[in-house]
Amino acid sequence: MRLGLQLPSFTYPGGTPEIRARLTDISQAAESAGLDSLWVMDHLFQLPEDTGLGGPEEPMLEAYATLGFLAGATSRLRLGALVGCAPSFASRRCSSRPQLRWTCSPAVA
Fold it and tell me: In this predicted model, which residue has the larger pLDDT, 2 or 98?
């Protein structure tokens, strides 16, 4: 069985200035714990407040830039975007690190 981690929110104690350090800590801890993959969401807008995972004032990172950052912080984890926004793929910049995987949800593919 392979286990992965999905990051549903980028809101951390210390606010926006702490995002980079927190993502590094989380991704390296996931890798050290033996997890297989790490996933970030690709939404054009922040999740609604009633989900408990967002709101219009909370940070929302662009998925593929975040994956590029995570690729630099890890060496083994498989990285992916949880549901991609197909119309904007052409304008995305991605790292060529082999651990990045282009993945589409079956509902979107």
Answer: 2
